[in-house]
Each structure stands twice: as C-alpha cells, then as structure tokens.
Structure to design on (772 residues):
C-alpha cells in the first residue's frame, strides 16, 4: 500500500491486465483510450449521448467475486489476486461505466469474434462505393473492415437498394445505402443544435435516415453531421467530389467569424484550400463549428482579391507604396482605424504606429445576433486582443452610425444572410467633418461599410491595407494588399481571453506581402522603431512590453490555446451573450449574487 | 621494383595476320547466308508480347461508358507523380448518372511516366491499362502530356467482366419497383 491515496472519485479498472485510475462513470472506451488501447466503435461519440446501437465496441467484462457471507472479494489462492467473475456474454463498451474493480478484456477470442461478426453484418448491404465515396480515406467502416473484415463476402442475395443522392438540406447530401444507422447525426441535431429534424423511418433492413416531412436539415450546424458520420452517408455538397482526403494537408487555424474563436483545421493541397473542419478543443468548441465558418475559405480565391500595391489607383511597387504611405503619415493629423480581425501581432504593430505618429486609434465594431452555440454577438475574432495589447482602451461603440451588412459571411456564398451592424467610427466621422483628421490609416477595415460617407472619405487621404476590393480601397490614396487569415501566422484572443494560434495553410498571392512586413515597413519608414517582421522576435518584444502577455512566446502557446487572466477587463460591457463554454461576466455575477 | 612482363615473340603465321583475317571473314560469310534478324523499323513493327507495359491509357467498356470514376488512387500511387486528375460529378441527366463521378481532366505526363504499371494494378474500376503503344514523340514538353481525349483515343474499348455499374442501376430500378 505504498501508492499515494487516490482522490475519492477515482476508481481503478483493469483493462487487458493493465490498471488505470479513472473518474467514476467514465465509459470503457474512454478509459481504454487513456491506456492507448483502441476499442473500435461507430455510434459512440465523446460529445453525444450513448446509444449503444452499432455493437462494434463489444468487450468482455468481469467484476470481483464477493463472498456471499462477508461481502469481501474472494482471493484466488493460486495467484493471490481477487477472483473475477467474467460475464458469459459480451457487453457494449460505450455503455459500460467504470466501477471499482471492473475488469475488461478487449483482445480475447470472443471479442475478436464479435468484431468480425459485426463487421460482416455491416458490410452485407454496404455498397461497393469506395472509389466514388468522399469518405474513403477517413472512413471508420473502411478502417475496421481492414482490421476485422473477411476480405470477401459470403452474402449471395442481392444487396438492399435505398435512395442515393438525397438532398437533406442546402449543404448536406445523403446516400442512404452507405448509412450504418449509427444515429450520431440524429443525436447531434437533437442534443447539440436542438433542431430535431432527422430520424429513422421504416423497419429492419429497410431502415432509412430521413428528414421530418416538410422539414430540411438547414440549420447553421448541419455540416457537423457530415464530420461525425463514420461512413460516407452524409457528405458535404460543397466538398462533394472535389478532392480525395488523403491528398489534403490539415493546418490548425481559427474561425474568424466571431469572438468564439472556434478551433479549425484547414485542409489544402498544393496551395488550394478545399474544406474547413472543426478541431477538437474541449474548452472552446468541443468538436463542432458553424457551417458559415466553413465557407470562409472561398474568400482566398475571390475575384475581388487585391494583389497590386497602388498609389492613386496606379500600380506600383510595394516599397514605393510604403514610402508614399509613410510620407502621408508623417504629415500629421493621422487617425488609425484598426481591426478586430487583425491578429494580436498586427494590432501590436498598429499600436506602435499610433504611438510613433501620436495618432488616435479606433476599432470597427461588428455586432450581430449570437446563436447561443458557437457564434457570438461580437463578430470580430480579436477585439480582446486590441484591449490586451492596448490599441484601444474601451470597447468601440457598437453599431452607432454604422452600416448594416446583409449577406452571408462567405461573400454571399454562406448559409443564411445575417445582419451584422458595423460601426464604431461616429467620433472619427465628427473629427473628419471638423477638419481635424487629414489622413486615415485603415488596417483591413472598409470605412464606408463602417459608416463613413463618400464625402467624408473624399476629405481625407486614405492609406488602406486590405485583402479585398471595396469602396475604401477604391478611394484609397495608397493601397497595400495584405493576406487573409489562411495565408499567415498569428494569434487571436477569443471571448474567454484565450490566446489561440493560427497557422499558414496556403501561400498568399505572389505579389502580396505579409501584413507584419507591411506594418513593420510602415513603422520604420514613419520614424518608429525598427522591428523585424518575424513572429519570434515580435513576441519577445510583446512579452516584455505588454503586461498581460508577459512570459509568453509564440512557440510555447499550446495548440489548444493559452488562457489569459480576464479579470482586468471584467468591467467592460462586452456584447457577447452565453455560448458554448462561455458565460458572460455580468450574468455570472448575477448568478452568484 | 617494377614488374617486368615477359612478351613471347609472335610466330611467323601470326606475323602475317592471315589466320585472323580469314577467321573474321568466316564469321562475315556465315551471317551473309543465315536468316535475317533485323526488323525494318518503323516500316515493320515487332509483335508485342502479352503483358507488355506500354503507354498508360484509359479505356471504355463495351457500352462506351468511360470506366474511370476519378478515385485518384493512380494519382496517389504513381511513383514519379506523372498523373494529375481533376475529379468531377456526372450530371444528373446523363445516362450514366448512377456512377456519379467521372474525371473532368486526366493528364499523364509521359516525360515523367516510368511505365511501372502501378496505376493499372491499383485501379479499382479497371479503367487504366498499359497497352501496346511504345513509341511516342513530340516537339514540346506539352506535346508529351497525354490529356483525357488522347488517353481514351489510345485506350479504346476493352472487354468487361463485371458491368458493375450496369448491375447496380438494374438493382436500383428493380428495388424502386418493390418499394
């Protein structure tokens, strides 16, 4: 009894002869996962309820034999270990919870037999669609068929025929023949989105996944059903037949559509992005993301992408444009319009520019309706970054004097048109009218959309850094094209004050420089400090100058983010309501009071 | 110490060179009257043995359906990365709509191809074959990239043992009738 005392809620289970202490109630699949033992499964999903219908996770289980008189475990005299009563029949692992002394066998002949049997039954009616199936390469049925399949079929009858190519909704296509009836999609819609549109109809081998009559699977989370489908039954209409997944390279990234900061994976091949999927982060988004965020990759190859540096509309070199911009900035009466879509590093450089030019800084606000799940009311991914860095002291006025954007976030290609109020520049507009501002440095923000009129834009010289063409880029005196979030490295701070990294998935257009390079160039040319445009060096400066980020270096930020102290900003009236894993501070106070 | 090679002096017969010349002429005369083995290429062409690995081609089934479904396994397995496929969907009103998927573009760069035959081996639809074509030339690098049209022209039609997709469509129609 030399082992340290265990916390009360931990129980020791024995899996394949190895012991592990897990919290009471942990199911066997998760306990085995911690030991590095994989129990194959289809219907079990760590973030959904347990349904236990695929029978793939069958295991043998046993409990210590108790003396009927004393209720004490019986000890086997031969080994000196407790005697185990093994159950005669296999149990499902997903619905077996850890209890004291639980013994599990995952490799016994009975378990292997069960897996072979289940696989054979699942493959009876499964079509030989692998060459044309988008799931091939990441299909659990394919993987387990390699491990537990027979290699040939003993089935001599004709396979079942079910509807193929059903449009369940605007973004999801269903192939019913491939469905193995695991019900993950049904449980997801019911439990996570609370939009209970899917269900099984008919009986036995005629069972078919279908939508409730008159309804469609069109909620903004419908594509998660495609992610969790263990086979190729639910496929994304957008990604359908575009590229085989084994060619695609995943890059960790962050969804920029709101301040939730959903962790994502961007799948690209040879510099072209094909799809975006969620990346598991139990503190932020679990394993989910909204459909609207998955369409954002279309901005990379949009027709209105800016590629040339321009002065007064005429194409020029990048260096020339930076020089021209620096001349304008050095002339004085400058206002800086920063962006809640810029990374922390870019906002830090914007702050340095503001200090060097002694210019006031604004931030454009973007406030819409939160959906209570993974899209928050604040549609800027990094307003917290601007606060932490010190680019702004207070939150921008939400929507005051701003325009109303009414289109999908994917440039009109996204799911549903959303209304987002853009604004926060009312005081800047007043200063322009009063003639106090002569030059505006707009970093990635369309000033016209944020509420400045064409007349106001005409009164000032605009230096515009941006990715896509808009009224501000047209009106700009100096135009410097920059990169989208998929083409650069950086960090965002989400609504929980969690510092999260995103990485470059694809190279940007050849002529376009990195945002950091342009901002460092502007800073140097405008008479500020000379900072190399390199994330490691930049972070060594940030960690010394910005107190909340002290001691942080870019390389050591964990893949699932670094939680910062939110206390200094707790009094600010943030726009966000409750979302998954996030409680607004004000409400939390009410709840505890 | 240098090693000294002892040279035996030539005999008289050797010094006349006549035995060597006559020996050479004997070989020449023998070949003059033996059967010809030279092939008058390119007027004459050799017979290609079965299993020969020539230029990779795409084939159609006897009904004229293009067999490739653009699964891209050949692109994946190709050691010199000579194959490049752009997958695409078959329109819903096409007669082979039940196959769902077909290549939009299929390029094989013959400057890269090493004729290993892995593409043929890996193809789950029996759509790509290395056939008899062994002679190819072009005036530019672009000429030596075989596009989809050229690949089908070279491949032609091969017999099919399975008619997998036709059976599947028949089952689909029969199955719908039962429901």
């Amino acid at each position: 009894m030399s082992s340290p005392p265990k916390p009360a809620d931990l129980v020791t289970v024995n899996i394949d002869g190895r012991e592990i202490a897990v919290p009471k109630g942990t199911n066997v699949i998760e306990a085995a996962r911690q030991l590095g033992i994989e129990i194959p499964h289809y219907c079990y999903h760590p973030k959904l309820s347990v349904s236990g219908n695929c029978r793939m996770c069958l295991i043998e289980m046993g409990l210590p034999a108790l003396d009927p008189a004393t209720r004490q475990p019986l000890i086997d005299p031969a080994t000196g270990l407790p005697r185990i009563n093994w159950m005669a029949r296999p149990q499902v692992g997903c619905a077996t919870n850890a209890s004291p002394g639980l013994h599990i066998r995952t490799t016994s002949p009975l378990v292997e037999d069960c897996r072979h049997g289940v696989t054979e039954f699942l493959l009876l009616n499964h079509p030989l669609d692998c060459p044309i199936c988008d799931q091939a390469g990441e299909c659990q049925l394919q993987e387990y068929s390699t491990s537990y399949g027979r290699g040939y079929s003993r089935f001599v009858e004709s396979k079942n025929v079910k509807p193929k190519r059903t449009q369940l909704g605007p973004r999801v296509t269903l192939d019913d023949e491939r469905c193995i009836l695991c019900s993950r999609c049904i449980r997801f819609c019911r439990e996570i989105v609370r939009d209970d549109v899917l269900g099984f109809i008919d009986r036995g081998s005629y069972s078919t996944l279908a939508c409730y009559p008159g309804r469609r699977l069109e909620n903004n989370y419908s594509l998660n059903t495609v992610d969790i489908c263990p086979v190729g039954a639910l496929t994304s209409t957008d990604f359908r037949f575009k590229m085989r997944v084994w060619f695609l390279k995943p890059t960790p990234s962050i969804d920029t559509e709101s301040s939730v900061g959903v962790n994502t994976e961007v799948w690209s091949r040879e510099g072209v992005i094909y799809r975006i999927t969620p990346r598991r982060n139990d503190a932020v988004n679990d394993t989910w993301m909204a459909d609207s965020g998955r369409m954002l990759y279309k901005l990379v190859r949009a027709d209105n992408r800016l590629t040339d540096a321009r002065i007064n509309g005429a194409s020029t070199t990048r260096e020339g444009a930076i020089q021209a911009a620096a001349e304008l900035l050095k002339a004085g009466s400058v206002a800086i319009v920063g962006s809640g879509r810029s990374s922390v590093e870019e906002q830090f450089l914007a702050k340095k520019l503001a200090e060097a030019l002694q210019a006031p800084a604004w931030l454009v606000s973007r406030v819409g309706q939160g959906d209570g799940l993974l899209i928050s009311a604040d549609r800027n991914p990094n307003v917290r970054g601007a606060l932490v860095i010190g680019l702004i002291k207070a939150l921008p006025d939400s929507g005051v004097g701003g325009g109303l954007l009414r289109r999908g976030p994917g440039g009109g290609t996204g799911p549903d048109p959303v209304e987002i109020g853009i604004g926060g520049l009312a005081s800047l507009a007043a200063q322009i009218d009063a003639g106090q501002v002569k030059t505006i440095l707009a970093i990635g923000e369309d000033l016209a959309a944020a509420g400045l009129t064409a007349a106001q834009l005409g009164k000032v010289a605009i230096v515009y850094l941006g990715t896509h063409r808009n009224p501000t880029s047209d009106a700009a005196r100096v135009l410097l094209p920059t990169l989208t979030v998929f083409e650069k490295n950086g960090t965002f701070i989400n609504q929980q004050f969690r510092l999260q990294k995103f990485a470059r998935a694809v190279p940007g257009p050849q002529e376009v420089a990195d945002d950091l390079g342009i901002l460092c160039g502007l800073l140097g040319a405008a008479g500020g400090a000379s900072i190399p445009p390199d994330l490691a060096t930049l972070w060594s400066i940030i960690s010394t100058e910005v107190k909340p980020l002290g001691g942080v270096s870019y390389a050591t930020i964990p893949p699932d983010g670094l939680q910062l102290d939110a206390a200094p900003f707790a009094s600010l009236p943030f726009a966000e309501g409750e979302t998954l894993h996030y409680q607004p501070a004000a409400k939390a106070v009410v709840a505890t009071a | 110490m240098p090693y000294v090679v002892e040279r035996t002096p030539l005999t008289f017969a050797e010094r006349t060179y006549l035995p060597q010349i006559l020996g050479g002429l004997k070989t020449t005369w023998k070949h003059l009257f033996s059967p010809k083995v030279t092939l008058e290429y390119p007027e004459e062409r050799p017979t290609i043995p079965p299993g020969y690995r020539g230029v990779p081609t795409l084939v159609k089934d006897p009904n004229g359906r293009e067999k490739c479904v653009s699964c891209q396994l050949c692109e994946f397995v190709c050691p010199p990365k000579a194959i490049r496929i752009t997958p695409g969907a078959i329109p819903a009103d096409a007669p082979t709509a039940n196959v769902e998927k077909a290549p939009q573009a299929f390029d094989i760069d013959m400057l890269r191809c090493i004729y290993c035959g892995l593409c043929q081996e890996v193809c789950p639809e029996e759509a790509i074959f290395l056939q008899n074509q062994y002679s190819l030339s072009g005036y530019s690098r672009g000429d030596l990239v075989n596009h989809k049209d050229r690949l089908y022209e070279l491949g032609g039609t091969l017999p099919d043992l399975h008619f997998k997709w036709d059976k599947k469509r028949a089952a689909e129609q029969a199955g719908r009738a039962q429901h």
About this structure: The longest strand of chain A covers residues 58-64.
